[in-house]
Design a protein that fits this description.
CATH class of the largest domain: Alpha Beta
Helix content: 25-40%
Strand order of the largest sheet: 5-4-3-6-7-9-8
Structural class: alpha/beta
Number of domains: 3
CATH architecture of the largest domain: 3-Layer(aba) Sandwich
Oligomer: single chain
CATH superfamily of the largest domain: Vaccinia Virus protein VP39
Number of helices: 13
CATH topology of the largest domain: Rossmann fold
Length: about 375
């Protein structure tokens, strides 16, 4: 019989911010599905993939999970969740058409999904030091369609603060599908990555999409021409509280009147979400809708490949304008840690950013193992 305290023990062993509730979420997801792939477990439990992997390992050690065409509860695990957690319902009430997103991509827009996917396939490599993690083409189209449905595009002045997701191109493609050269009164993209801006400009010109870009680091105050000049803001900032505060503040400074903000972010546990909601209040932003799991990302395993989209509306006076940002901002700056990887061919360990080893796993794969030249690595866990 499993110890009722096992959830707490596993949460502590894996340093799970969500605590025992996060472990329970994994067990619930597996129980309701019968058998589930690990990446689907992480998505259902709203946990980063590396964390879900660590929790799974501990649950297997405790004899509660086993491998059966995916993850499944052992007989002891099933007894535990039914007896200790009180589970017994396996019904799924999520809308099968929209997967709970509230919007779908109509059949008439599938050509736009394919076109955007072809464009994004040629995008510059991600810069993880800037927390870039592009979403899927389907997600970009869904964001554009959601904004269209809410009245945030037609006749609106639209500002995108960062656009490694190519939402600006999605907006243009949606307009073309509807027979309008430009749905908006202008779309502007501000980004610190000139490579990304050049990519957007070139493809916008090729596709006949009206788009203006501006190379600007949001750690510096907004140019005067952008302040109070937009009706709609869209942003997917660095997934730190500091990143959210900076990008939302710049967005609030750019809004004219009672504008709207479409804010994509990681699905944080309640304590961290409370701090994020305080940022909303300080900026005079009211939460209209929270859409969990709305965003799907390609390769962002640290996010569990999913994120939420929060619809915000300016509803009160904002805090004073923010001067230049001096402190840390991106994930690696906020949460510095030793990131060690092991070559799957020879077992040689490499620590990112140490000696001649690159700063990112992507760069390490490109460079290859210093010992054997291999290009496949796994994350080193444990001590």
């Amino acid at each position: 019989m499993a110890d009722p305290e096992i959830l707490k023990t596993i949460a502590e062993a894996t340093r799970l911010r969500e605590g025992p509730a996060g472990v329970e979420a994994i067990l619930r997801a597996v129980y309701r599905s019968g058998s589930l792939r690990l990446q689907d477990v992480a998505r259902e439990a709203r946990l980063p993939m590396p964390i879900a992997t660590a929790v799974r390992r501990e649950l297997e050690k405790a004899g509660l999970l086993e491998r059966k065409q995916g993850l499944a509860l052992s007989p002891e695990g099933r007894d535990f969740v039914e007896r200790e957690l009180g589970l017994g319902i396996t019904i799924d009430v999520t809308c099968p058409a929209c997967a709970g997103h509230g919007v779908v991509i109509p059949a008439d827009f599938q050509a736009q999904v394919g076109r955007l996917a072809a464009i994004i396939a040629q995008a510059p490599s991600v810069d993880v030091t800037l927390d870039q993690a592009p979403c899927t083409p389907e997600t970009s189209l869904l964001r554009a369609l959601l904004m269209l449905q809410a009245g945030a595009l037609e006749g609106r002045r639209v500002l995108l603060l960062g656009d490694d997701d190519s939402v600006s191109l999605a907006i243009g493609l949606v307009g073309q599908a509807l027979g309008k050269a430009d749905l908006t009164r202008g779309v502007v993209v501000v980004d610190a990555d000139e490579r990304r801006l050049a990519f957007l400009r070139e493809n916008a010109a090729r596709e006949g999409i009206a788009l203006r870009t501006l190379h600007h680091d949001l750690r510096q105050p907004l140019p005067a021409e952008l302040q109070g000049a937009f009706d709609t803001i869209e942003t997917d900032p660095p997934y730190t509280l500091e990143g959210a505060k900076l990008f939302l503040t710049r967005g609030r400074e750019a809004l004219a009147g009672d504008g709207l903000c479409y804010f994509s972010f990681a699905q944080w546990p309640p304590r961290q979400m409370l701090a994020l909601q305080r940022v909303f209040l300080d900026l005079g932003l009211a939460v209209q809708t929270i859409r969990p799991g709305f965003n799907a990302y390609a390769g962002a395993t640290v996010l569990g490949n999913v994120g939420q989209l929060i619809e915000l509306a300016a509803a009160g006076p904002a805090a004073a304008a923010l001067p230049a940002w001096q402190g840390p901002l991106y994930t690696a700056e906020i949460n510095p840690r030793i990131r060690a990887y092991v070559c799957t061919s020879c077992g040689r360990e490499a620590v990112l950013g140490r000696g001649s080893t690159p700063e990112t796993i992507e760069a390490l794969k490109d460079q290859g193992c210093a010992n054997c030249g291999g290009h496949s690595f796994r994350r080193k866990t444990g001590g």
